[in-house]
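Record type: monomer structure entry
Structure origin: computed from sequence
Chain ID: A
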Amino acid sequence: MRDLPQPTLPFSLIGTPSRRARLLSPALLTKAPALPAPVVARAAPIPALAPSAASAQPLQAIWARSADEIEEAQRLRWQVFAGEMGARLNNLPGTPAGLDRDLFDAHCEHLLVRDVEGDVIGTYRVMTPAAARRVGGWYSDTEFDLTRLRHLMPRMAELGRSCVHADHRQGGVIMTLWGALAGFMVRNGLDTMIGCASISMRDGGHVAASVWEQVRRTHLAPIEHQVMPRLPLPVEDLDSGLSVEIPPLIKGYLRCGAKVVGPPAWDPDFNTADLPIMMRLRDLPARYRRHFLGGGID
């Protein structure tokens, strides 16, 4: 594989990016990110809305309303991203040990899922248009040129830092998170979600290139919604013809009507390839609309 390329596009909204400390993300979600184990890692597998052992357990989705609750999310993120994935976290100065914290955290909403014992076992970070204005731009803009999405930004939310505790990745947690996210979108008059879905590059990137080759044929957004990576994954130098399964979280996003909006970026800090994903509520299939929204949406 050739050396890591240098950025070729200017940052359109943020002058100095802060590297991911991973989102996708699911989207979309995601450093879904898009995500879990051999081929990804920032969230759990997604069931086809079927009951599971995890979903049978009482789970509570809440929005963080205190610094302590945000730290609970940051601690889980550190456990998954640094502890499991070995990511190099570029934390803000003064961040306590064992937390994942960057400059975007103070401006975002933090969604948590607690288990029956009250422990945080899943989280998403959500940036609203108002938050993006406060911080000076979107996190995704540090990885992709979002120019073609600017007309969507007034009603767009960015999902990131998605992760689920290793003991709770049977699907119930992520479905609980998605249900709470759908309600948040409707209540706040938002209709579009973007995020990065991450694929491990432990194999050198061949799996990621092969996943991209699959999804670009079937789920690539039209040109007017496509974005360009600032540090592109050099897919032309990789074997993109491997017979690989699309990671569960990415598959879950696509099942919900999401589109891949461009080729993958290379995230050297997480050693992942990040696929940019966009989902619009109006594209939710009917069964997911009923499940997450209790009906339809215009």
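Annotation 1: Residues 1-55 have pLDDT under 50 and may be disordered.
Annotation 2: The CA atoms of residues 182 and 292 lie 6 Å apart.
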